[in-house]
Amino acid sequence: MKINVKVGNNEDTVTISGEKTIKDLLESMEIAAETVVVKKNDYIVIDEEILEDGDSIEVIQVIYGG
After folding, report:
1. What is the chain's alpha carbon radius of gyration, rounded to the nearest angstrom?
2. pTM for the predicted model, two decimal places
3. Which CATH number fits domain 2-61: 3.65.10.10, 3.10.20.30, 3.30.420.10, 3.80.10.10?
């Protein structure tokens, strides 16, 4: 299946096989789930959300400090 993934200003189409979750996608991209918020088709989702063919994923880096 193909999904569109946007991280920052970079956007790409990714092909994955089998049932995968947001967490699986983040791990394959070497992104720590604790440091980002993920939107699937314009809705914020948890990392257990199942990916489906044609999904549009946006990974938003969380910025924090003190």
Report:
1. 11
2. 0.90
3. 3.10.20.30
